[in-house]
Design goal:
Structural class: alpha/beta
Shape: globular
Order of helices and strands: EHEHEEHEHHEHEHEHHHEH
Largest sheet: 8 strands, parallel, barrel
CATH class: Alpha Beta
Strand order of the largest sheet: 1-2-3-5-6-7-8-9
Number of domains: 1
CATH architecture: Alpha-Beta Barrel
Mean pLDDT: 97
Strand content: 15-25%
Low-confidence stretches: none
CATH superfamily: Luciferase-like domain
Distance between the termini: 12 Å
Number of helices: 11
Radius of gyration: 18 Å
Number of strands: 9
């Protein structure tokens, strides 16, 4: 199983130089991918912008939106071109991961209705695939980006099989990952898709002396919209020591996950080395 690491693009106060130093270290330490999570109404860097910056200072590491809230970008052709641009700029290292999102304020600020968002995402993905298969939009690339679909509902499974190269789970834990991943594989085979879907998952982490403090400060704020109890549960589930990192790696690998991306709760680039050491990289 590959081990990726998230960029600290959603950690408030992260500077551009901190983001770039994080990317350089992750590239040097052997992580498979740099991931980004997405919000509109928050003090965060826009994911495609952050990954474009990371592409400029890295050489081999993958670049992935894990995930991008695609329905909030209503112009599917423009999004397709942005993805092709990142694919070309990075030398073929980009994965476009997409999901729906569920925050009312993100949709309100974007002037987008939540009702019908699943249908609109299907239409977007169809248009993106159509755009990638042509040669009139965006820089030429040897291969199109891989498209990964997020979500745990049956509609997300169907969307993965219809449009995706694979599926990604949020930070829901290895048991729920295994349950939905099996549905994806079964539907994939039933649809006559060749090969196996690429499966990914997210987990949160913070290591070192400030691990507990950083997790509480970041995740309790980021997920405050879900209520204190749910936010606390997410924070409690973050890996805060090397032993828990190892447990997550073993559990997700046992569940058949192809790539586990650890999302940070701190923008201190020392976290990259601490996680690499804990993961045996």
């Amino acid at each position: 199983m590959d081990v990726g690491i998230g960029l600290p693009n959603t950690i408030p106060g992260t500077s551009g130089e901190q983001l770039l130093e994080w990317a350089r270290r992750a590239d040097a330490r052997g992580f498979s991918s740099l991931g980004t999570i997405d919000r509109i109404v928050y003090e965060n860097y826009e994911p495609l912008t952050a990954l474009a910056a990371a592409a400029a200072v890295t050489e081999r590491i993958g670049l992935a939106t894990t995930v991008l809230l695609a329905p909030l970008r209503e112009n599917a052709v423009e999004l397709a071109k942005q993805a092709l641009s990142l694919q070309a700029l990075s030398g073929g290292r980009f994965i476009l991961g997409v999901g729906l999102g569920g925050r009312d304020d993100d949709y309100e600020a974007s002037g987008v209705e939540q009702n019908g968002r699943g249908r609109r995402l299907d239409e977007m993905l169809e248009k993106i695939r159509e755009t990638w298969s042509g040669d009139r939009v965006g820089p030429s690339t040897e291969t199109a980006p891989r498209l990964i679909v997020g979500g745990h509902a049956d509609a997300s499974v169907a969307r993965t099989v219809r449009f995706g190269d694979g599926w990604i789970a949020g930070g829901s834990g290895p048991e729920q990952f295994a349950e939905v991943a099996e549905k994806v594989r079964t539907a994939w085979s039933a649809a006559g898709r060749e090969g196996e879907p690429h499966t990914m998952a997210l987990a949160y982490f913070s290591l070192g002396e400030r691990a507990e403090e950083d997790v509480r400060a970041n995740l309790m704020d980021y997920y405050a919209w879900l209520g204190e109890e749910v936010a606390a549960m997410i924070a409690d589930g973050a890996a805060k020591d090397a032993a828990t990192v190892e447990q997550y790696l073993a559990a997700y690998e046992g569940a058949g996950c192809d790539e586990l991306v650890f999302c940070p709760s701190s923008n201190d680039s020392e976290q990259v080395d601490l996680l690499a050491d804990a993961a045996g990289l």
